[in-house]
UniProtKB/TrEMBL annotation:
Domain Integrase catalytic: 43-79
Record InterPro entries: Homeodomain-like_sf, Integrase_cat-core
Lineage, broadest ranks: Bacteria, Pseudomonadati, Pseudomonadota, Betaproteobacteria, Burkholderiales
Protein name, UniProt field: Integrase catalytic domain-containing protein
Keyword list, A-Z: Coiled coil
Gene Ontology molecular function: any one: transposase activity
GO biological process: DNA integration; DNA transposition
Protein's UniProt keywords contain tRNA-binding: no
Amino acid sequence: MAEVSAALGVSTHSLYAWLKQFKKPVEVSAAEEEVKRLQAELRKVTEEREEIFDYIEVFYNRKRRHSFTNGMSPVDFEN
Protein backbone atom coordinates (compact mmCIF):
# COMPACT_ATOMS: atom_id res chain seq x y z
CA MET A 1 0.00 0.00 0.00
CA ALA A 2 2.90 2.33 0.74
CA GLU A 3 4.27 1.82 -2.78
CA VAL A 4 0.93 2.68 -4.36
CA SER A 5 0.46 5.78 -2.24
CA ALA A 6 4.01 6.93 -3.07
CA ALA A 7 3.40 6.36 -6.79
CA LEU A 8 0.20 8.40 -6.60
CA GLY A 9 1.84 11.11 -4.50
CA VAL A 10 -0.63 10.81 -1.61
CA SER A 11 -0.28 9.67 1.97
CA THR A 12 -1.05 6.10 2.95
CA HIS A 13 -3.75 7.41 5.28
CA SER A 14 -5.43 9.29 2.43
CA LEU A 15 -5.34 6.22 0.22
CA TYR A 16 -6.92 4.06 2.94
CA ALA A 17 -9.60 6.71 3.53
CA TRP A 18 -10.33 6.85 -0.19
CA LEU A 19 -10.63 3.06 -0.44
CA LYS A 20 -12.81 2.88 2.66
CA GLN A 21 -15.49 5.07 1.10
CA PHE A 22 -16.12 2.46 -1.59
CA LYS A 23 -16.77 -0.42 0.80
CA LYS A 24 -20.40 -1.09 1.39
CA PRO A 25 -20.96 -1.40 5.16
CA VAL A 26 -23.88 -3.78 4.65
CA GLU A 27 -21.77 -6.21 2.63
CA VAL A 28 -18.90 -6.03 5.11
CA SER A 29 -21.15 -6.61 8.11
CA ALA A 30 -22.93 -9.48 6.35
CA ALA A 31 -19.59 -11.11 5.59
CA GLU A 32 -18.42 -10.59 9.16
CA GLU A 33 -21.63 -12.13 10.49
CA GLU A 34 -21.15 -15.14 8.22
CA VAL A 35 -17.57 -15.58 9.44
CA LYS A 36 -18.75 -15.39 13.06
CA ARG A 37 -21.49 -17.94 12.34
CA LEU A 38 -19.02 -20.31 10.69
CA GLN A 39 -16.56 -19.95 13.58
CA ALA A 40 -19.32 -20.76 16.07
CA GLU A 41 -20.33 -23.77 13.97
CA LEU A 42 -16.72 -24.97 13.90
CA ARG A 43 -16.45 -24.66 17.70
CA LYS A 44 -19.72 -26.57 18.09
CA VAL A 45 -18.65 -29.38 15.75
CA THR A 46 -15.25 -29.63 17.45
CA GLU A 47 -16.86 -29.85 20.89
CA GLU A 48 -19.35 -32.46 19.67
CA ARG A 49 -16.56 -34.52 18.11
CA GLU A 50 -14.65 -34.45 21.41
CA GLU A 51 -17.77 -35.48 23.33
CA ILE A 52 -18.40 -38.41 20.98
CA PHE A 53 -14.76 -39.48 21.19
CA ASP A 54 -14.85 -39.38 25.01
CA TYR A 55 -18.10 -41.38 25.06
CA ILE A 56 -16.70 -44.05 22.76
CA GLU A 57 -13.50 -44.33 24.78
CA VAL A 58 -15.46 -44.83 28.01
CA PHE A 59 -18.07 -47.14 26.49
CA TYR A 60 -15.74 -49.33 24.48
CA ASN A 61 -12.91 -49.48 27.04
CA ARG A 62 -10.00 -51.00 25.17
CA LYS A 63 -8.54 -52.53 28.32
CA ARG A 64 -11.67 -54.38 29.46
CA ARG A 65 -11.68 -58.06 28.69
CA HIS A 66 -14.29 -59.28 26.27
CA SER A 67 -15.76 -62.77 26.06
CA PHE A 68 -15.65 -62.61 22.26
CA THR A 69 -11.84 -62.41 22.37
CA ASN A 70 -11.48 -65.26 24.88
CA GLY A 71 -10.90 -62.91 27.79
CA MET A 72 -8.35 -60.71 26.01
CA SER A 73 -8.59 -56.96 25.78
CA PRO A 74 -9.28 -55.59 22.29
CA VAL A 75 -5.78 -54.12 22.11
CA ASP A 76 -4.16 -57.44 23.03
CA PHE A 77 -6.43 -59.29 20.60
CA GLU A 78 -5.40 -57.06 17.68
CA ASN A 79 -1.69 -57.40 18.47
